[in-house]
Amino acid sequence: MTQLRSFYPEIEPYETGMLDVGDGHAIYYERCGTPGAKPAVFLHGGPGGGIAPKHRRLFDPRAYDVLLFDQRGCGRSTPHAGLEANTTWHLVADIERLRERIGVAQWLVFGGSWGSTLALAYAQAHPGRTSELVLRGIFTVRESELHWYYQFGASEVYPEKWEDFLAPIPPAERGDLRTAYRKRLIHEDEAVRLEAAQAWSLWEGRTLTLLPDPETSDTFGDPHYALAFARIENHYFVHHGWLEDGQLLRDVDKIRHIPATIVQGRWDMACPTRTAHDLHRAWPEADYHLIEDAGHAFSEPGILDRLIRATDRYAGL
């Protein structure tokens, strides 16, 4: 039996910095691996999730020069939880600013969950700057995907966790939960904002893995993390990511020539397999790996194995 691949050893950045991207935003970035090696950019999930040390370990540090960054409003970027001038297309422009800053013509683009959305949007806007794509837990912000997770669908699989998600919202407002949460997440009362943020964030944290994993879910209850995560996610989702419904699937022709790997957990509740299946149908040229014993998290063994094998392969290892 083939042994599953796992994380590369822990590594510290060889460079960190803040980049002023305008509109009052400054984004934190870090670079890991070997300066001048194969360039890659890592796009985290959420939106609003931020980067973590484990993300650095998805790439062979001898073969890659990886840039990771906290998207607008989250992690160490400022202002914390800021929603002004924070859209998909602002983030696409930020990725280009970062590429130009480090002076590479192309780079591998790696994105999971919301990061897969952003990776597709960036690659379709800048196909000439994208050498390869590694995509995990596919999400394209279609209304059907949002409805499944925030209105009816995943609620039937996790009814006890769904009750906690509903708790801050009065019954009369539950017909449109994203809008009801929006009202509370931008409320002038900090206590109201925080209650809504933690309920929204914990719903996601508790439904990410096939089996319960406190190490994954506990992060989502941290008040500082939850506020940025929930406010930014909800902000993007009430605006459908500033994308036309189905746009990223419709425009696959723009990136069809780019080598790509798609990795999807069968039991992914946050980003159901239907979306990955639709992308695979639209883009059969891309490698597609459906992991039968996994949910959504990149750290689940079967998903992690395929991600590491993909980054290795694109580095010629």
Walk me through this protein's architecture.
By secondary structure, this protein is an alpha/beta fold. The chain folds into 2 domains: 15-142 and 242-314, Rossmann fold, CATH 3.40.50.1820; 144-241, no CATH class. It has 12 helices and 8 strands. The protein has an 8-stranded mixed beta sheet with strand order 1-2-4-3-5-6-7-8, with helices on both faces. Helix 2 links the parallel strand 5 and strand 6. It is globular.
Task: Report a brief summary of the structure.
The chain is α/β, with parallel strands linked by helices.
Our Rg estimate from Cα atoms comes to: 18 Å
Span between N and C termini?
Answer: 21 Å
Low-confidence stretches: none
Structural class: alpha/beta
- Order of strands in the sheet with the most strands? 1-2-4-3-5-6-7-8
User: What is the molecular shape?
Assistant: globular
SSE map:
Layout: E1 15-22, E2 25-33, E3 38-43, E4 64-69, H1 88-102, E5 107-112, H2 114-125, E6 130-136, H3 143-150, H4 154-157, H5 159-166, H6 177-185, H7 190-205, H8 214-217, H9 223-238, H10 247-250, E7 260-265, H11 273-282, E8 287-291, H12 301-314
Helix pairs in contact: 1-2, 5-7, 6-9, 7-9
